[in-house]
Amino acid sequence: ESPSSSSSPESKMSTVFAGKKLARNSGEHALESADTALDGKVVALYFSAHWCPPCRQFTPVLKDFYEELKDDHPLEIVFVTFDRSEKDLKSYLAEAHGEWLYVPFGDALIQDLTAKFE
């Protein structure tokens, strides 16, 4: 089966994010088109929250991994937050996260992704 077929993992992930907006953990946290940001990339979803001790231990490891690979490999991480407030999310992003994409706090996409990948 060819990589461009509708049953390929890349195609399925692009469908999940089609028409959606994501923010990048850098600068102004401006929204950008998921279609453009994820085009041609391997997408890894990271479900986490600042109140989760194992997550807080793993996040810096993931950041280092991402930083090592991002310039030479078509990898994008999309953070899906389980934080209880936007303030908690922003604090967690500033504390330990890489400059990857994230689903904005309160976006319905968080529940959609949680249900899809539970």
What does this structure look like?
With 118 residues, the protein is of the alpha/beta class. It is built from five helices and five strands, in the order αββαβαβαβα. It has helices spanning 9-17, 34-38, 53-69, 86-96, 108-116; strands at residues 21-24, 31-33, 42-48, 75-81, 101-102. β1 and β2 (31-33) form a beta hairpin. Mean pLDDT is 87; it is low at 1-11.
Roughly how many Å is the radius of gyration? 14 Å
Order of helices and strands: HEEHEHEHEH
β-strand percent reads: 15-25%
Write down how many β-strands occur, each being a DSSP E stretch of 2 or more residues: 5
Number of helices: 5
Helical coverage, percent range: 40-55%
- List low-pLDDT spans: 1-11
Concise account of the structure shown:
The protein is 43% helix and 19% strand. It has helices spanning 9-17, 34-38, 53-69, 86-96, 108-116, and strands at residues 21-24, 31-33, 42-48, 75-81, 101-102.
